[in-house]
Amino acid sequence: MTPAEVDAFLRRHHTMALATHGPGGFPHVVAMSYGFLDDRLAFWGDRRSQKIVNLQRDGRLGCLVDDGDEHGELRGVHLAGVAEFVGDPDQLAALGRAVLAQRFGPDADPARFPVPLDRLVAGRVGVRIRVERTASWDHRQRP
To answer: What is the sign of the dihedral through the CA atoms of 121, 88, 125 and 136?
Structure first.
Protein backbone atom coordinates (compact mmCIF):
# COMPACT_ATOMS: atom_id res chain seq x y z
CA MET A 1 0.00 0.00 0.00
CA THR A 2 1.08 3.55 -0.56
CA PRO A 3 1.52 5.83 2.48
CA ALA A 4 -1.86 7.44 1.70
CA GLU A 5 -3.51 4.00 1.50
CA VAL A 6 -1.91 2.99 4.80
CA ASP A 7 -3.22 6.16 6.46
CA ALA A 8 -6.73 5.64 5.04
CA PHE A 9 -6.71 1.99 6.11
CA LEU A 10 -5.68 2.82 9.68
CA ARG A 11 -8.33 5.54 9.94
CA ARG A 12 -11.08 3.10 8.84
CA HIS A 13 -10.37 0.58 11.58
CA HIS A 14 -10.53 0.84 15.34
CA THR A 15 -8.85 -2.21 16.85
CA MET A 16 -5.24 -3.29 16.66
CA ALA A 17 -3.13 -6.07 18.10
CA LEU A 18 -0.46 -4.49 20.31
CA ALA A 19 2.68 -6.47 21.07
CA THR A 20 5.05 -5.53 23.89
CA HIS A 21 7.88 -7.37 25.63
CA GLY A 22 6.56 -9.19 28.71
CA PRO A 23 8.55 -9.49 31.94
CA GLY A 24 10.06 -12.83 30.91
CA GLY A 25 10.92 -11.60 27.42
CA PHE A 26 8.01 -13.34 25.72
CA PRO A 27 5.63 -11.29 23.58
CA HIS A 28 2.58 -9.87 25.34
CA VAL A 29 -0.15 -9.28 22.74
CA VAL A 30 -3.48 -7.57 23.44
CA ALA A 31 -6.30 -6.14 21.35
CA MET A 32 -6.49 -2.36 21.74
CA SER A 33 -8.71 0.45 20.59
CA TYR A 34 -6.74 3.35 19.20
CA GLY A 35 -7.09 6.87 17.90
CA PHE A 36 -4.90 9.61 16.51
CA LEU A 37 -3.19 12.24 18.67
CA ASP A 38 -1.21 14.95 16.90
CA ASP A 39 -1.94 12.95 13.71
CA ARG A 40 -0.08 9.92 15.10
CA LEU A 41 -1.48 6.55 16.15
CA ALA A 42 -2.00 6.45 19.91
CA PHE A 43 -3.77 4.44 22.60
CA TRP A 44 -4.19 4.55 26.33
CA GLY A 45 -4.29 2.11 29.19
CA ASP A 46 -4.57 1.85 32.94
CA ARG A 47 -1.24 2.92 34.44
CA ARG A 48 -0.91 -0.48 36.19
CA SER A 49 -1.83 -2.60 33.15
CA GLN A 50 0.71 -5.12 31.90
CA LYS A 51 1.09 -3.37 28.53
CA ILE A 52 1.95 -0.03 30.17
CA VAL A 53 4.33 -1.66 32.67
CA ASN A 54 6.00 -3.51 29.79
CA LEU A 55 6.41 -0.31 27.76
CA GLN A 56 7.86 1.56 30.73
CA ARG A 57 10.51 -1.16 31.00
CA ASP A 58 11.10 -1.48 27.22
CA GLY A 59 9.45 1.08 24.96
CA ARG A 60 9.64 -1.00 21.78
CA LEU A 61 6.30 -2.19 20.40
CA GLY A 62 4.59 -3.66 17.39
CA CYS A 63 1.05 -3.01 16.18
CA LEU A 64 -1.00 -4.94 13.64
CA VAL A 65 -4.23 -3.77 12.04
CA ASP A 66 -5.66 -6.17 9.49
CA ASP A 67 -8.83 -7.41 7.85
CA GLY A 68 -10.09 -9.98 5.38
CA ASP A 69 -11.19 -13.58 5.73
CA GLU A 70 -10.09 -15.28 2.53
CA HIS A 71 -6.45 -15.25 1.39
CA GLY A 72 -7.23 -13.04 -1.61
CA GLU A 73 -8.91 -10.46 0.66
CA LEU A 74 -6.17 -10.12 3.27
CA ARG A 75 -4.71 -6.70 3.88
CA GLY A 76 -3.06 -5.07 6.80
CA VAL A 77 -0.49 -2.74 8.29
CA HIS A 78 2.26 -3.57 10.76
CA LEU A 79 3.92 -0.72 12.64
CA ALA A 80 7.13 -1.14 14.61
CA GLY A 81 8.05 1.72 16.85
CA VAL A 82 8.72 3.20 20.24
CA ALA A 83 6.29 4.39 22.90
CA GLU A 84 6.13 8.07 23.75
CA PHE A 85 4.18 8.51 26.97
CA VAL A 86 1.44 11.10 27.34
CA GLY A 87 0.56 12.15 30.87
CA ASP A 88 -0.88 15.66 30.48
CA PRO A 89 -4.59 15.53 31.46
CA ASP A 90 -5.68 17.72 28.52
CA GLN A 91 -3.75 15.51 26.08
CA LEU A 92 -5.20 12.38 27.71
CA ALA A 93 -8.73 13.78 27.38
CA ALA A 94 -8.04 14.55 23.71
CA LEU A 95 -6.74 11.00 23.27
CA GLY A 96 -9.85 9.59 24.95
CA ARG A 97 -12.07 11.55 22.56
CA ALA A 98 -9.92 10.37 19.62
CA VAL A 99 -10.26 6.71 20.65
CA LEU A 100 -14.02 7.18 21.00
CA ALA A 101 -14.25 8.86 17.58
CA GLN A 102 -12.14 6.14 15.93
CA ARG A 103 -14.44 3.44 17.33
CA PHE A 104 -17.85 5.10 17.01
CA GLY A 105 -17.40 8.00 14.55
CA PRO A 106 -16.53 11.68 14.86
CA ASP A 107 -19.87 12.61 16.44
CA ALA A 108 -19.71 9.92 19.15
CA ASP A 109 -21.12 10.91 22.51
CA PRO A 110 -18.59 10.69 25.39
CA ALA A 111 -21.43 9.13 27.41
CA ARG A 112 -20.60 5.90 25.52
CA PHE A 113 -17.58 5.45 27.81
CA PRO A 114 -18.37 3.11 30.71
CA VAL A 115 -17.42 5.87 33.17
CA PRO A 116 -17.10 9.64 32.69
CA LEU A 117 -14.09 10.72 30.61
CA ASP A 118 -12.53 12.77 33.43
CA ARG A 119 -12.52 9.70 35.72
CA LEU A 120 -10.93 7.59 32.97
CA VAL A 121 -8.22 10.20 32.41
CA ALA A 122 -7.25 10.15 36.09
CA GLY A 123 -6.03 6.54 35.96
CA ARG A 124 -4.70 6.33 32.42
CA VAL A 125 -1.42 6.71 30.61
CA GLY A 126 -1.41 7.61 26.95
CA VAL A 127 1.03 6.19 24.42
CA ARG A 128 1.75 7.93 21.14
CA ILE A 129 3.67 5.73 18.73
CA ARG A 130 6.87 6.96 17.13
CA VAL A 131 6.80 4.69 14.09
CA GLU A 132 10.19 3.50 12.91
CA ARG A 133 9.11 0.93 10.36
CA THR A 134 5.88 0.25 8.45
CA ALA A 135 4.98 -2.84 6.46
CA SER A 136 1.71 -3.23 4.58
CA TRP A 137 0.04 -5.68 2.24
CA ASP A 138 -3.17 -5.88 0.23
CA HIS A 139 -3.84 -9.20 -1.46
CA ARG A 140 -6.81 -7.65 -3.26
CA GLN A 141 -4.35 -5.71 -5.44
CA ARG A 142 -2.71 -8.85 -6.82
CA PRO A 143 -3.37 -9.76 -10.48
So the answer is: positive
